[in-house]
Amino acid sequence: MAKSRITDVAGREAVERALATVTDRDTEATAVRYLLQVLADGAPGNSVEVRVPPFGAVQCIAGPGHTRGTPPNVVETDALTWLAIATGGTGWAHALEHGRIAASGSRADLSAHLPLLWDGADTPYPSGTLGT
Fold first, then answer.
1. Three-class SS state of 3
2. Does a structural domain hold residue 3?
3. What sign does the CA torsion over 112, 115, 120, 121 have?
4. Residues in contact with 71: Cβ distance below 8 Å, sequence separation at least 6, in sequence order
5. Could you tell me the CATH number of the domain that includes residue 92?
6. What is the pLDDT of residues 82-123, one digit of tens each?
């Protein structure tokens, strides 16, 4: 059975709501999962696992993969930090420097892939108040 996908309309709406206000858990979860989905679509592969507990995880970035156990390249962060770095509210280096991201492995630098693009355009998501 194929993994269910969040539609662009529902995902964008959840992200916009999460950036604009303090939201409910379901909206935050949808926004996080949608942005993980966008990352995986834009950087396909399985050499890095990006985890945002408790909402989701994806494998992305082309390169050598893994088949069992903990992958050699892991990025883990909380939901608010993920929303902030994925949308341009804060930078990868800033979040890493301040201990908001745990990244292990030689391929676990997502800075070349962030912030994610807004609506398929050439600009990132409009910055919200997250990650300031």
1. coil
2. no
3. negative
4. 46, 47, 48, 49, 59, 65, 105
5. 3.30.1050.40
6. 999 999 999 999 999 999 999 999 999 999 999 997 554 455
